[in-house]
Structures are given as C-alpha cells and as structure tokens.
Amino acid sequence: MKNIIVIVNQKGGVGKTTSVLNLATALVVQNKKKILVVDIDPQGNATTGAGIDKNSAIKTSYDVLVNDIPVNEAVLKSPSCGFDLLASNRNLAGAEIELVGLEEREFKLKKALAKVANDYDYILIDCPPSLSLLTLNALSAAQYLLVPIQCEYYALEGLTDLLNTVKLMQGQLNPELEFLGILRTMYDKRNNLAQQVSTQLEEYFGDKVFYVSIPRAVRLAEAPSFGASAVAIDPESVGGQSYLRMAREFIKRLKELN
Ligand code: ATP
Ligand code: MG
Predict the structure, then answer these.
(1) pTM (2 d.p.)
(2) What is the residue range of 196's domain?
(3) In 21-33, which positions are buried (b, 16+ CB within 10 angstroms) versus exposed (e)?
(4) For residue 70, what is the domain's CATH number?
(5) Which atom of ligand 1 has the smallest separation from the CA of 222?
(6) Which of 8, 26, 71, 210 is the most buried (most CB within 10 A)?
(7) How confident is the model over 127-148, as pLDDT tens digits?
(8) Domain count, the chain
C-alpha cells in the first residue's frame, strides 16, 4: 500500500524505534497528518515510548496477526504523541511459531492493514532487529522502506543481507517495495569514522541517503523514560528539531515518488 512505510534494519539499536516515534509525532504536530504506528517488535519499545503500558490488558499486533482481530478494534491513541498505535508486547514473540502453520503467513499484516489504510495519511511500521517472519510481514505490507543506519564500523556489515532480503521480497512477495531512503542516526559529523561511513553510504546509495541526518542527542535518548518522543516533549531540542526537519524531507520524498 502506497502510504505504508516500514522502518527496518536487522541490526539492533540503530535508532529504528526512536525514528518511528519522533517522525510520527513530527508528522502529527508539524504536518497535521493522521498517523498509525504499528509496533511489531516483541520488545514493545515503540509502545512504551508512546506512553502505553505494554503489560496492561490491551489488544496488540499479536491479536491482529494470530487471532484475526481487526486493526481498528486494537488501535490505541498515544496520550503523549498524538498518533494512533497498534501496540506490541512479548506475546508477539510466540507469534513467530504460531504463524508458521498458517496459510499466507507472510501476508497477515498486509491484509489486516488494508482495511484501515484509507483512514490514515501514513502508516509507519517499527520492526524487530531481525529478518524474521514478523519483519517479512512488514516488508510485504509496505510500499516504502526506510533504513536507519548508525554510521559506525559495523554499519555496512549486514546491510548486504538486508539488501538481499529486499531483492527477494521484490521478486516474490512484494514487487511494489521500494527504497524511500537511508537515514543516518546518532551521527557525529566531527567523527572521522562516522564521516567515512557516511561517504560510503552516499557512494553506494546516492540520493537515497536522506539529506537530513540525526545527531546524537540527549533528549532523544531521555524522552522514552517519560513515555513520549523528544518531538512531543521538547520540540526545540537539537534532537526534536532534527526529526521535524527529517519529517519535511520525508513528505517531500514521498511526493516525488508518487
Ligand atoms: P532495536 O533494534 O533493539 O529495536 P532500535 O534500532 O529500535 O533498537 P532505538 O531503540 O531507537 O534503536 O535506539 C537504541 C538506543 O539508542 C536507545 O537507547 C535510544 O534512546 C538511543 N538513541 C537512538 N537514537 C539516538 C540519538 N539520535 N541520540 C542519542 N541516543 C539515541
Ligand atoms: Mg526498536
């Protein structure tokens, strides 16, 4: 679906969830867009970071994927960030196994989101750090791929696996899937290694690298402990500002592609 964007990188801790939460908030507060964030990571970081208690009696993406609960019956509103959320918690870890026996198991999320896609301007999916069946479900549902990359030594390792998976997806499960871009996260322009990796990314991905990069910023790391994004609680902060700029580039890039 054209308005579904998956934020993916099987490497852990590169800023996927931080990017989803801050981009989503920016699109709501700055651009007045209606946004659904879909958490399909059993860690449930996007859920907690959006101010929802993941262990309370809520319906989650597990219920949608495994029990066929309609998305609109499971959607919650983030009290702090203003977007809608399909939550997740560790129940979802079991879904991997439960899904294996099901028919069309890679298309469960796609089918579920198809029913609500028209209710939103954009749907952003936060993936776990793996190329698991959950991630495949996200890659099947989305039209666009956004890959946060931390510019450090091992950043490019594993990227080949991701690119191969994307190629496989394009060939088989989702011919529509295309790159929206690469986002440099926790980026320190004064650091030589970060600069080198950034240059390599530009050489390889060309104009697919977002012009806006996200610096390492305290507020971005602190905000989740308040159950909010930095854009929501401190939009003037360095981190908040960077995602507000990134959201403008995000919309511009999507317009150019559509
Ligand atoms: P996982 O693969 O486990 O889901 P992730 O890719 O979603 O991780 P995040 O959880 O967003 O990564 O970020 C990892 C850690 O780095 C978190 O503690 C987060 O607060 C911090 N972090 C992310 N981006 C920044 C940034 N730009 N500046 C400072 N800290 C950041
Ligand atoms: Mg995460």
Answers:
(1) 0.97
(2) 4-257
(3) bbbbbbbbbbeeb
(4) 3.40.50.300
(5) 20
(6) 26
(7) 999 999 999 999 999 999 999 9
(8) 1
Residues 237-253: pLDDT tens digits? 999 999 999 999 999 99
Residue 119 CA to ligand 2 centre (angstroms): 25
Which atom number of ligand 1 is nearest to the Cα of residue 21? 11
Q: Which DSSP category does 88 fall into?
A: -
| Ligand 1 binding pocket includes 109 (Cβ within 6 Å) | no
Q: How far apart are CA 130 and CA 81, in angstroms?
A: 26
Q: Which of 24, 1, 20, 21 is nearest to 113 (CA)?
A: 1
Nearest CA, atom 19, ligand 1? 221
96 pLDDT above the threshold of 90: no
Whose tokens are 């469960």? That residue is 108
pLDDT tens-digit map of 106-125: 999 999 999 999 999 999 99
CA separation, residue 232 to residues 80, 85, 246, 256 (Å):
7, 15, 15, 28
